[in-house]
Amino acid sequence: MIKINEKDFKIVTFQLILLVLISLIFAFKVNSQTITGTRGTPVTFNTKTSIAITTTSNNYLTLAYAMSATSGSGWTVRIRANSDFSNGTATIAAGFVSLDYESPIGGPSNTNSRNYQTLSTSNSKSMINSGRSITSGNNDFQQIFNMRVTGGTHLGVSAGTYSTTLTVQVISDKGTVMASDSNILVEFVVNYSTSCETAVISSYASNQANFTSYAEQMAGLTVTDAVSVQYNPNTATCDEWSLKVRAAGNFTNGGTSVAPQYLSLRFNRVSAGTPTAAQIGVSTFSKPLDNVDVTLIGGSNATFTAYSFTEHKFDLQIQGGNHLVIPNGAYTGTLIFSLYNSSNVLVSTSTVDVTFNMNSAYNSLTLELQNLANEINLDFNTIANYTNGVSVTKVRGMRVVGYQPYQVMIKTSGLNLVSANNTSIPVAAVNVQATKFTSSSGGISTFTRQLSTVNQVIVTNPMVDNTQQVTEYDLQYYTAPGDSRLSGKSGVFNTSVLFIVVAQ
Predict the structure, then answer these.
(1) Is the Cβ–Cβ distance between 449 and 456 less than 8 Å?
(2) Could you report the per-residue pLDDT of 106-131, keeping only the tens digit for each?
């Protein structure tokens, strides 16, 4: 018979609990395991050509195992992707990436690759065949894996570093998990993208056109390097991008304006960075501006270089003509440049004000048609009108104010007077005679001209004194008797006559 008092019982109970706790701790130490991963150089795609090619990074992933468990031959390593690869904004399916067991560092011998195994987010893939056991003497070792990324259009979605994590397990010959880790990072890099999403453009105007004479107004001017467009691609390496421009409205100075269609931009050069104009495939033809997008560079043959600044210079061409017979001053219009990717999706815009200056000596002179001289009607109502010709005179029909020698020229807007039914009479059938009305000192000459689309002088004023500064002229319009060009014509025939005063 054994007597145990209450105090002794409590002591024994405490000792039993302590022994159990020690046993649990010992068991935990026996089954301790770790898996760590070390990455090498990732697969990297830099160009449009490269993303089409399946690429391998040899010896990319090194897995290090530290285990206390053992296994007979037939153990394996299983790997599963926890998600598709992502750069934070776009994803590429894990199925485009595969791993292949390359070689061991230490550990059991006689381990062989099961060739490239495509990653899956739903199934773990067995990576090796083993012919030797894992023993207590070789259960700390490393294994090296190659990583392969399948090329194709799926890589063109967006630039960036694409990553995911892997769940790696060492499985014993009995099918039990000897070691496991679900946070092994793997990644690959795409530096090429068709989206151009990170590219930004800016623009500025520099040189300006300056018209100083009537001859320049009629001939037009070209300004070299008038506008510059700058590209900051950041990470973008896209090709087939396009640069377009549109005018926000007319070029204006107060209430006077010039339509943007009379102005053009022409690519001049790549002033900084790459690619070159030849690599891009730039057209050097002039592109007239409009209120809708006009393509300056369409579908570049070359890619941007990531983080490489580029600048393009454009010449401004201003078409000469009557639309530039306008008051002196600065004429400003707003241009909007737009960068589009290969899918014609807008990537970036930049707005710049462009100005040309009118400082023509011609505009220091003023010419006014007065006393209804801005509308001339030659009526043919009888046979006598055809036989004898018709004449209309506007007394004091033209008034010129100037303080320097000048000429007055006339020309028509077209070769013919045209009717509503599209029949015509040559403008040369009408003559214009200018006669000085104002009393002044001598030297002013006036002339009679047949109408023409060519500038013809009808007045010259040498401006010898102040009596010639404000001068009025009679204007007579007439047809010659019996002009056959008028025979058989019926209807109302119209044209416009432009009067131009220019300094001599």
Answers:
(1) yes
(2) 999 999 999 999 999 999 999 999 98
pLDDT at 485: 93
- Report the candidate in 392, 388, 369 with the shortest Cα–Cα distance to residue 379: 392
Q: What is the length of the chain?
A: 504
| Whether the predicted pLDDT of 182 surpasses 90 | yes
Of 149, 156, 159, whose CA–CA distance to 53 is shortest? Answer: 149
Give yes or no for a contact between 486 and 385, defined as CB atoms under 8 angstroms apart.
no
Query: Which has the closest alpha carbon to 240: 295, 311, 173?
Result: 295
For 202-213, what is each residue's pLDDT tens digit? 999 999 999 998
User: Residue 475, SS3?
Assistant: strand
Q: What is the DSSP string of 52-103?
A: TS-EEEEEEEEEEEEES--B-TT-EEEEEESS-EE-SS-EE-GGGEEEEEEE
Residue 442 burial (C-beta neighbours within 10 Å; 0-12, 13-18, 19+)? exposed
Report the run of H or E that residue 188 belongs to, with start and end: strand 177-190
Structure tokens at 241: 């991008």
Show the tokens assigned to 220.
């037009």
The answer to whether 340 and 346 have CB atoms below 8 angstroms apart is: yes
